[in-house]
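Action item from last meeting closed. Structure (302 res):
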């Protein structure tokens, strides 16, 4: 992936995040006012989630800004891994919000209070519109960056919260059962947790330098072995700097004719092209070896 492409992607991410931050601020102010007017814990819980969203989006914005910096002699892969730490912060924020909402709901169950369903419904519907707008803005970048995925999940959590609040407000209006507000709060907490855990699993996969979930090492090895002039492949390693940025390295044993005919450059071009075309790996490194070198190389990894 070229530096120019990276720069354009990070610029697009920053623009998306700035737009969504403005939307979140507006919805937060509306929900705080709505919670005060209606007495709704679900609205207040969602407003609290908005605060976490704002913090998470600011973290994502900072990460996207730092990640756009070019590589240096000290950071030879650049600063893209900062995106992973931004996603880690977002995942932890989601867990804290879920726990605080659940605790607040339990206390409300024991205390009890009057909830005005009309105000609650009007504010929740408006908040839902803002959340959907935020999701549409972030959707384009969520697949390309783990950092943007974290921001997307933050807003998705709000959308779920708004939907739960709408259902609770309708129940209150139709039946007068105020505890529906508390049930909605608990539902928000329960639904946020899987979002956070899915993000954190992806973060752990990247930080532990595991093979990206979408990458099949056996298929890569098969493609390399099927290349003309390749005898064997070992010391295969695949990891990711951040999501969508896989890195590959391998030792490739080649036939004597490749060296004798000066075809190493052609073979490297073919191997790099194969990884980029079939497996979307833009950064691949191959060590070409004659058979006699591979035989005494020592500890190798299949």
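Sequence:
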């Amino acid at each position: 992936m070229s530096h120019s492409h990276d720069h354009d992607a990070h610029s697009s991410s920053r623009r998306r995040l700035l737009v969504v931050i403005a939307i979140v601020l507006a919805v937060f102010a509306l929900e705080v006012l709505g919670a005060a007017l209606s007495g709704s814990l679900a609205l207040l819980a969602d407003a609290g989630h908005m605060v976490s969203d704002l913090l998470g989006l600011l973290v994502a914005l900072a990460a996207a800004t730092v990640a756009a910096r070019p590589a240096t002699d000290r950071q030879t892969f650049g600063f893209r891994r900062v995106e992973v730490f931004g996603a880690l912060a977002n995942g932890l924020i989601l867990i804290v919000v879920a726990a605080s909402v659940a605790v607040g709901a339990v206390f409300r169950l024991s205390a009890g209070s009057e909830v005005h369903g009309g105000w609650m419904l009007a504010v929740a519907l408006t908040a839902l519109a803002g959340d959907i707008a935020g999701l549409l803005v972030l959707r384009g970048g969520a697949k390309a960056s783990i950092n943007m995925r974290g921001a997307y999940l933050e807003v998705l959590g709000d959308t779920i919260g708004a939907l739960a609040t709408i259902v609770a407000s309708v129940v209150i209006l139709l039946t007068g059962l105020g505890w529906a507000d508390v049930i909605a709060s608990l539902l928000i907490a329960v639904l946020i947790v899987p979002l956070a855990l899915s993000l954190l699993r992806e973060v752990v996969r990247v930080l532990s330098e595991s093979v990206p979930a979408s990458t099949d090492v056996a298929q890569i090895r098969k493609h390399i072995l099927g290349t003309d002039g390749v005898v064997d492949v070992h010391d295969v390693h695949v990891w990711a700097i951040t999501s969508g940025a896989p890195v590959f390295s391998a030792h490739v044993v080649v036939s004597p004719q490749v060296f004798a005919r000066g075809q190493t450059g052609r073979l490297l071009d073919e191997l790099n092209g194969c990884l980029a075309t079939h497996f979307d790996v833009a950064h691949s490194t191959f060590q070409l070896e004659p058979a006699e070198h591979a035989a005494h190389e020592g500890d190798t990894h299949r």
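Note appended to the action item: Residues 1-5 have pLDDT under 50 and may be disordered.
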